[in-house]
Amino acid sequence: MLAAKDDYPNFNVENKVALVTGAARGLGKACALALAHAGADIALGLRDVNSAEDLENEIKGLGRKVKRFQMDVSSVAEIKTAIVEINEHFGRIDILVNNVGVAPANPAELVTEEDYDTTMNLNVKAMFFTSQEVAKLMIKQGRGRIINMSSQAGAITIDDEAVYCMSKAAVNHMTKNLASEWAKFDIQVNAVAPTFIETPGTEPWLKDPKFKKSVLDRIPLGRIGKPMEVAGAVLFLASDAASLITGEVVMVDGGWTLK
Fold it and tell me: Which of 203, 197, 188 lies closest to 252 in space, CA to CA?
């Protein structure tokens, strides 16, 4: 028996409002553009509200509504203020992409308290409290999608990245806990875990031929990922095509974690 028309997967996010944090460049920029291409209006959460003017104009050119918001997620107070402003402007938030994160390289024996706190605060604490504030709105709305940017580092070890790996493992477990707790409100919480992707943040590392070779040797598909390949997974999880998926960590790693 053929499926009814309404049963076929729907990959668009038309008439949805998506908040993307850390949207000025790299994966955040790719996610904002992918969601806008698929029909969403976009709130750009930015550490510097004066950045990302080019991205704002590009999204406007797609015929979508878009606005930049001051949102330094290292401040819980600023998170709360930004969420209020976004809700007042757009009237709702349907999709949250928690993209902000840092990955400082540091041998474990040299990590300082400041290093540790900066990484854990931006990668874990900020994500939790951003999710909490947005979830309060989603609970009132009766549904929502939260997508956390994790990393393959949450499932493997990487030398000189102990704290980063720990933080992304925490993101993975946070994703599962929030998915379980908020499922009764029809809020789905998932994570995307990329390998090394060609972004401004990874460019200095990947310029080193020896390092790049060591990365490629670990990726069965044999290449570095592109930002839109990560954004595609985010878009899928934000769409109704993923309506029965929650608490999952989707690896976008070219097969690295298969070994």
Answer: 197
Total domains present in the chain: 1
Which are the catalytic amino acids?
Answer: 164
For residue range 114-127, list pLDDT tens digits in order: 999 999 999 999 99
Say how far apart CA 201 and CA 199 lie, in whole Å: 5
Q: Which residue do the tokens 């990329």 mark?
A: 194
The domain of 34 spans: 10-199+226-250
247: CB partners within 8 A, 6+ apart: 175, 176, 179, 180, 189, 190
Q: 154 near 193, Cβ under 8 Å?
A: yes
Here the CATH number for the domain that contains residue 157 is: 3.40.50.720
Q: What is the pTM of this model?
A: 0.96
User: For residue 221, is it within any domain?
Assistant: no
Answer yes or no: are the C-beta atoms of 170 and 155 closer than 8 Å: no
At residue 250, φ and ψ (nearest 5 deg) are: -90, 115
**∠198-236-28 over CA atoms, to 5°?**
40
